[in-house]
Design a protein that fits this description.
Elements (H helix, E strand, L loop, with lengths): L8 E8 L2 H8 L1 H21 L3 E6 L2 E6 L2 H17 L10 E8 L2 E3 L2 E3 L1 H11 L6 E4 H7 L8 E8 L8 E7 L32 H13 L2 E5 L6 H11 L8 E5 L9 H8 L10 H9 L4 E6 L5 H14 L3 E7 L8 E5 L14 H4 L3 H13 L10 H10 L4 H9 L6 H6 L4 H4 L14 H9 L4 H9 L9 H7 L7 H13 L4 E5 L2 E5 L2 H14 L2 H19 L8 H10 L1 H11 L6 H18 L2 H13 L8 H14 L3 H18 L2 H17 L3 H18 L2 H17 L3 H18 L2 H17 L3 H18 L2 H17 L3 H18 L2 H17 L3 H18 L2 H17 L3 H18 L2 H17 L3 H18 L5 H16 L3 H13 L2 H9 L18
Helix pairs in contact: 1-2, 2-3, 3-5, 9-10, 12-13, 12-14, 18-20, 19-20, 22-24, 22-25, 25-26, 25-27, 26-27, 27-28, 27-29, 28-29, 29-30, 29-31, 30-31, 31-32, 31-33, 32-33, 33-34, 33-35, 34-35, 35-36, 35-37, 36-37, 37-38, 37-39, 38-39, 39-40, 39-41, 40-41, 41-42, 42-44, 42-45
């Protein structure tokens, strides 16, 4: 196969005209033989003229040539061969061909770019045995045309989906027919739809396909949407695409400028030059004209003349069987047979996710902004730095094309960052549209004013009251919050349905339930109306009360079998809970309400990973509270728990201790045990395992006395963790198995997942990696089911450690990096540091010692900031390993000794055993073979006592170090020193490992070197 040319390339597209008819005429097998012969003839002509076959589908070829005259010569030779070939009787294979020259991009084994489409469109306008050339292909080939081949100028033609007209030429080839009907370009089709849009049409491929499908099934299709969503532009684009499907054309009737419903029929008739006859209704004359014609009528902007437009549309459709109507409106025309298509906003990125310039191009709203901004300000460009700002901007503008285009126009005078900052004043910012646009499209406010002015007074009242909802809402919520004055709760459904019909409220179906919401831009407008009405305080107060009830109703189930249902419910209403908290934190609302709402939500924030946000709300509401108010118990508890998860241990301890003190003074056992459990977790992370155990043992005892099952299960979980940290795995399993049983009875998947994760880690520490993986994957699956991203990050670290132990370093790295991504996004420093530590360890086992040191140092710095002594010790231990591998023995010994001192203070015996082995290597490398052997022996004995199993790579590394030392010494002397180490107490071994190295060190008798 010839390689595909690059640079300036000439494309040739071919296909058989009437291939389907030929297939029916010949039958499958004879047609297949004809098709193969046709392919043989064409391929021979292409090969003779340096053609490279790009693609073949059915009877069509796509071929690339390095020069335009090669393409022309190949086409001429192919047509002559096809014309002179002895086909079966009554058969003539007529192939149409199109040639265009350009500079496409070669992506793998295919070309991309507008030049490819232009060549295909040129071929599609022709007829069998006709060869057509673009102006550029002709200009570059005309000096080297094949002998006797001439050219005919066919003039300019507009091609489907191509904005610039193309000047087309036809080859006149000896022996091949030369006369054909007019080209099948858009120029010969009848329409008053604007031939060229001044700006390109971005995206909407899915919407266009769906609208075309509805037009094929229904004779009246109405595009619905609020002002600025691009209904008109979408209708025109669909109409332009369908021109060739309607023999009598596609016709546009613009109704926006009309004020008198009586002029609707006249306006449509004028488009077709139909005049009123004396004594005869104009509608009858219009029906007579349209009845025999197959055409598409676009009725644009019907909403303010809805009854007149509906009457005319249905009258025309009854009288004209070949007519189809595509209407745009903000509410349906009504009546039977109408297909409704609600125009969605442009696709837009999630503003909460970090996004690159390349990723931004995947979203229609962003592409539109970038394209229009570049037109407005040629110096504008999107980069990885400003891409997240563009993402937030187009998201806040709801993907509404008009709003995006108006914002893009502001790049002439403002950087995109300032445009995004000013969106709260969006109606002043987004003004000054194109002067030639319709008045209600010139500014964003005018577009929405146009809809608002068409509402009845009750509709306007509900419209402004609905602005209190920051996100989606249910009918029940609207019926409870929005009545008042002339609107009763029974009126809400009917009025809400009318606002949906008028495209000011949109509906969403979620698992069978219908919810409602306003686009942010429309809500911003309606909120201005609410603020001006004097009703805001009353409506927002009812909104707050509704969501306080929801939060308090949800709190108990968050500890039971329905916790996922309630977590999803709260997340669904999260925007409105935020709005309720904002109002609750204002001076207009009593502190108790704010404290109750924040306290009730803290577990939701914890379980769904909204750490920074939840903590900020709780800290804010605590500022306005009396420190002795009972409602501060839970608010302080929540703020303390979230502060702990973020690594702010000092603030967390203050808040949790304050919650515990107040709970005890109030006789609040539940508040006390929850505070004790949280203080136990915090104290464990700070490395004081003895105090941590005492706190949760107190909690467990009080929980049993008070019959508090859920706090007891949590206390047992924490006891399992602290006992595991002290390397007492058997006792840890006892606590965790009891906790598991309680969690299962409660149906609490969150607690169950934590217990499974801890048991998985214990199995890992004991070397049962298959069991560890099963337990950890079950824990991760539960956390994914609950949407608990915070603890997903924890499970990913544990699973990564198992993969690392099994030497699957590629999988381990992916798991740690996924965990880092989640931890960074959630601001969870403890797990971020754990992931970094493990990435460093993985790098170490792959021999990348400098990379390992870099990651471990970064993790240690984070651990120091958080005061996490256990994490600091782990980092120092592996930094000792990495520096030892680099031959930096003195530095390695320093790291190991620092780590060992911390582990001794924590009582973490597994860590002590690792540090003893590490220091054994160091002292042996410095010549103290006896000291190395003793520390190796002490480390082995400690692991045996603990039941601690080294991962395979660690074990092999240890065995290699021991073997190297044994190889340098007399076997009996080594065995004696090893046994001395095994006989040491833990404190004796640690004391020897931590002592300053003597200036002269005793050595074991060494083996004699071999002769020579």
């Amino acid at each position: 196969m010839r390689s595909l040319p690059t640079g300036t390339v000439s494309f040739l597209f071919t296909d058989i005209q009437g291939s389907t008819e030929l297939l029916h005429k010949l039958g499958d097998q004879p047609y297949g033989e004809v098709l193969l012969e046709h392919q043989r003839l064409l391929r021979h002509a292409f090969a003779e003229h340096e053609g490279a076959e790009v693609d073949t589908q059915g009877d069509a070829f796509f071929v690339a040539f390095p020069r335009s005259w090669n393409a022309v010569a190949a086409a001429a030779a192919a047509q002559q061969a096809l014309t002179s070939h002895p086909w079966p009787e009554g058969v003539q294979v007529r192939v149409r061909m199109g040639i265009h020259t350009g500079e496409p991009t070669l992506a793998g084994d295919h070309y991309v770019g507008l030049d490819v489409h232009r060549a295909a469109r040129i071929a599609a306008t022709g007829y069998g045995q006709q060869v057509l050339l673009s102006e550029r292909a002709y200009a570059m080939a005309r000096e080297k045309f094949p002998p006797a081949v001439e050219v005919r100028d066919l003039g300019e033609h507009r091609l489907k989906d191509i904005h610039r007209p193309e000047h087309i030429f036809q080859l006149i080839i000896p022996g091949v027919p030369a006369d054909f009907p007019p080209l099948k370009s858009l120029e010969i089709l009848i329409t008053n739809v604007p031939a060229l849009q001044l700006t390109s049409f971005v995206g909407r491929e899915r919407e266009m396909a769906e609208i075309k499908a509805r037009l094929a099934a229904s004779r009246l299709v109405t595009l619905l949407g609020p002002g600025g969503t691009g209904k008109t532009r979408l209708a025109l684009q669909v109409g332009g695409d369908l021109l060739e499907h309607f023999p009598k054309g596609v016709w546009l009737v613009e109704l926006a400028s009309l004020a008198d419903p009586g002029l609707v029929i006249q306006t449509v008739a004028t488009v077709f030059n139909v005049r009123e006859a004396p004594g005869r209704p104009l509608l009858d004359s219009l029906n007579d004209y349209l009845k025999p014609r197959e055409l598409l009528l676009i009725l644009d902007n019907c909403e303010h003349l809805i009854e007149a437009s509906a009457h005319l549309a249905h009258a025309l459709l009854r009288a004209c069987p070949q007519l189809r109507i595509l209407a745009t409106s903000r509410e349906p025309l009504g009546g039977t047979g109408e297909a409704i298509y609600r125009v969605p906003p442009l696709s837009r990125p999630d503003p909460a996710r970090r996004i690159s310039a390349e990723q931004l191009a995947e979203f229609e709203a962003a592409r539109l902004f970038v394209e229009r901004a570049t037109l407005s300000n040629p110096r504008f460009s999107v980069t990885d730095t400003n891409a997240p700002v563009v993402a937030r901007l187009v998201s806040r503008l709801d993907g509404i094309p008009l709003a995006i285009e108006l914002a893009a126009a502001r790049t002439k005078v403002l950087p995109v960052e300032q445009i995004a900052q000013r969106l709260d004043d969006r109606f002043r910012l987004l003004s000054g549209g194109v002067r030639t646009d319709l008045p209600h499209h010139q500014t964003l406010r005018a577009a929405i004013d146009w809809s608002h002015d068409l509402l009845s007074e009750p509709e306007r009242t509900l419209f402004r009251r609905l602005s209190v909802f920051a996100g989606g809402f249910s009918l029940e919520a609207a019926e409870w919050i929005c009545p008042g004055g002339e609107i009763t709760d029974l009126d809400v459904l009917d009025l809400l349905a009318r606002l949906v019909d008028k495209s000011l409220v949109i509906t969403e179906e979620l698992e069978g339930d219908v919810r409602y919401r306003m686009l942010e831009t429309i809500r911003h407008y309606s909120r201005e109306k609410l603020a001006a009405s004097g009703e805001e305080a009353d409506v927002r107060g009812r909104h707050l009360q509704w969501h306080l009830t929801l939060a308090e109703q949800a709190e108990p189930p968050l500890r039971g079998p329905d916790q996922v249902v309630w977590l999803d419910r709260l997340e669904l209403d999260h925007d409105d809970l935020r709005a309720a908290l904002e109002w609750a934190a204002s001076p207009k609302v009593e502190a108790e309400v704010a404290l109750r709402l924040g306290g009730a939500l803290h577990r939701f924030w914890l379980m769904r990973g909204f750490l920074s946000e939840g903590r900020a709300w709780l800290e804010e509401v605590l500022k306005k509270a009396d420190v002795g108010h009972p409602a501060t118990v839970q608010a302080r508890l929540g703020a303390g728990v979230l502060a702990h998860r973020q690594g702010d241990h000092d603030r967390a301890e203050y808040l949790l201790q304050a919650s515990l003190t107040l709970s005890r003074s109030l006789g609040d056992d539940l508040g006390a045990v929850l505070a004790l459990n949280s203080l136990g977790r915090l104290t464990r992370h700070r490395g004081d395992l003895e105090r941590a155990a005492a706190l949760v043992e107190e909690s467990a005892a009080l929980s049993r006395t008070s019959g508090l099952t859920w706090p007891l299960a949590e206390a047992l979980n924490v006891l399992g963790l602290t006992t595991r940290d002290r390397s007492d795995y058997a006792r840890a399993r006892v606590f965790l198995e009891e906790a598991l049983a309680l969690w299962r009875n409660l149906g609490d998947k969150w607690g169950l997942a934590e217990a499974l994760n801890t048991l998985g880690v214990i199995s890992y520490l004991q070397g049962d990696y298959d069991r560890a993986r099963v337990l950890l994957e079950e824990s991760l699956a539960l956390r994914r089911e609950m949407g608990d991203r915070l603890d997903q990050a924890v499970s990913l670290v544990s699973l990564g450690s198992v993969a690392e132990a099994q030497r699957d370093y590629e999988r381990a790295t992916k798991l740690f990096e996924e965990s880092i991504g989640l931890s960074r996004e959630l601001g969870h420093k403890a797990n971020w540091a754990a992931s970094l530590t493990n990435l460093g360890i993985t790098a170490y086992w792959q021999g990348e010692y400098q990379k390992a040191l870099s990651r471990l140092e970064e993790a240690r710095a984070m651990a120091v900031e958080m005061g996490s002594r256990a994490r600091i010790a782990t980092c120092l231990n592996f930094m000792g390993m990495a520096t030892y591998a680099l031959g930096q023995y003195e530095q390695s010994g320093g790291f190991y000794r620092q780590s060992l001192a911390i582990y001794r203070g924590l009582g973490e015996k597994a860590g002590i055993s690792e540090c003893l082995a590490g220091l054994a290597r160091v002292v042996a490398a410095r010549g103290d073979h006896a000291g190395g052997a003793r520390l190796f022996g002490a480390s082995e004995r400690l692991r045996e006592v603990l039941g601690y199993v080294l991962p395979p790579a660690d074990r092999e590394h240890l065995e290699a170090s021991v073997a190297a030392l044994k190889g340098e010494t007399i076997e009996e002397a080594f065995a004696d020193a090893w046994e001395q180490g095994r006989m040491m107490t833990l404190e004796e071994a640690v004391a020897e490992a931590l002592r300053e190295e003597p200036k002269s060190v005793p050595t074991l008798p060494q083996k004699e070197s071999p002769p020579g």
